[in-house]
Structures are given as structure tokens and as C-alpha cells.
Amino acid sequence: MKIKLLKYLLLVFLIFVSCGDDDDNGIIQVPEADRDEQQVIDNDSLLGYFQTHYINQSQLIGNSNIGLDEIIINELPDDGQLPNPSQNILLSDLVETFTTTFSDTEYEYYIIKLNQGGSESSPNFSDKVRVSYEGSTMDNQIFDSSSTPVDFDLTSTIPGWGRVLPEFNNAINFIVNNDGTVTYNDPGIGIMFLPSGLGYFSAAAGTVPVYSNLIFKFMVFQSEFNDHDSDNVPSHLEDLDGDYDLTDDNSDEDQFANFVDSDDDGDGTLTIDEDLEPDSDLNFDRDGDGDPTNDIGDGDPTNDDTDGDGIPNYLDSDDSASRND
Questions:
Q1: How far apart are CA 293 and CA 283, in angstroms?
Q2: CA distance readout (Å), 291 to 63, 248, 283, 294
């Protein structure tokens, strides 16, 4: 089971569970939990977990050479005392708290930054990323992992991933070893703690029970912009209201959200052709005619505003000029 379970979290309205003999069908229907109420329960569980678990800060924090198997979360011994306080630290003293709104509910989620990552670039919430990871529940049951780097489209993962990974930088570079393996230098390394509402919520995913808080250890190696509709507008810029949801941005109110719409404003001119700025790269043959010096457009439709009204042409139905005219 891979974490890219859904493009966006599957909303399940009824959960069917076994019941006693007094039910004619042998099942009962249980309504989906209220998200606001479940978030309170989930957050209390996470805060309690942070008070009773710790990591070895001297080995992990700031160490860019650790592996996922070296990131160990330990439970306090029976006496409740933190062993070797000079080396270890409670999660409650280390986690950073973040908030986000998803499905009309405000969520708190938590991150431990073991290593920020050496690159100047970071993933966007809708990017394609290369990572390794291990996912577990709060009772330490591992449900998914990949120790070798794998690629994900963040729009196809659970909501928490698109919030967390942009807080880290990519690796600064990589080296291809003689045996064909790749070593990434100074990757972003962290642990995320997600309430069920930013995970699978009421959808039982494989061995993950419904309403499970999730813990992911992860390394961020590389990322690249996604442009799902190939219109030269990166998908993260198509989130016009900044809510991390690409599906609710639809400028022309047709059946396609902007990030999968080749004509965002519905004016009959493709978004990619509303790029009228002077060509800034005289070595790249943008139109493929064999002459890189006669191209129109700089490859960025977002900076063209012919009528100067503050709305770029590709979102303004009043401006329909095409670079093909």
C-alpha cells in the first residue's frame, strides 16, 4: 500500500461494521465522525504522545547522513523519567506546531526538522517530489515504507504531505556511485505527525484503522514543478485562493479546474498562447521553427497584462490576444 492513495482524501459518508443478531442485515451504519470533534480527539492524542516519547537529539538533529532506520522514537520507561537528558529530548520540546484548514476544519499538525536540507529550493504543495519515507501509526505499526527514493505527485497523496514537505529544502546535489546507486547530499530530513483528518480520516487504508493519527519519517531529495495541463503555468500558481486545493479554482466556471484547463479564462485563446512578453531566451527554440530568435513569449503567461488591469491575460477574458496572431 502506497501513500498516494487518493488525489484528494476520499470522503466516505458511511462505514459498515459488524453488529449483533438484533440487526436484520447483520450490519449497522455508522455516520462519519464530525471533523471538528475528531480533530479535538486526535490533537489530544498527539499531545499526549509527545509527552511520553523522545528521540536522541545528539545523534539525529542536524545530521544529514542518517538513514530512516536510525530515526527511532522511544517511549519513556515505566518511571516516566527521560533517560540521559544530555542526549535525549522529549518530542514535546522539539515539535513545531502548524495549522491549516482542510474540508472546512482547522487542523493542527506537527513537524520535527532533523535537517533542513541544503538546497535553496523547496517543494511546492503540488509538485512532483523524490523522497524516501516510513509511515506508522501511533502504536508503532509500520504500514508503508520505501527506503529507496521514490517519486510522488503531491496532489495524489494525503493532504498532510502537501503541507509538510514545503517546509523542507531539497538535497543540495547528488552523486551517482560506481554501483549505480545515487547518494544525495544534505537532504531535508524530518518527522511529521498528522491528525487523521490530514490522513485517511474515515477511510480504512490497508492496515490503517479509521481515524488513525499518522507518523511519517521522511527524506526530501528532489522536487520539480508540476504543470498538469502543460500551459506553462506551474500548478501551484493555479491555486488562486491559496487553500492548497487546486480543484476549487475555476476562472471560467467550466467543467475543468484551472490546473487541468488549457484555457483558464475561456476566451478561446489557449493559456500557453497568451504569453506575449518578449522572448528572454534567444538560444531556446520555443516555437520549434528552427530559429530561436523569432519566438514570441518568455515561457511565462503569468506576466502578460495587456490592458493593465492587474489581471494577467490568461485569467482575463477581455484580453484574448494570441502569440500566434
A1: 7
A2: 49, 40, 9, 6
Q: Is residue 166 over pLDDT 90?
A: yes
Count of alpha carbons within 13 angstroms of residue 195, beta-carbon side: 25
Give the integer Cα–Cα distance in Å for 57 and 63.
10
Q: Which three cell numbers stand for residue 14?
A: 458511511
The average pLDDT across 143-163 equals 96
Cβ(265)–Cβ(273) below 8 Å: no
Bridge partners (DSSP) of residue 30 are 15
The number of C-alpha atoms within 13 Å of 192 and in the hemisphere containing its C-beta is 30
81-108 b/e (C-beta count within 10 Å ≥ 16 → b):
eeeeeeebbbbeebbeeeebebeebebb
Q: Which domains, ranges and CATH numbers included, belong to the chain? A: 14-78+87-224 (3.10.50.40), 229-325 (no CATH)
What per-residue confidence (pLDDT) applies to 290? 76
pTM for the model: 0.85
Neighbours of 293 (CB within 10 A): 8
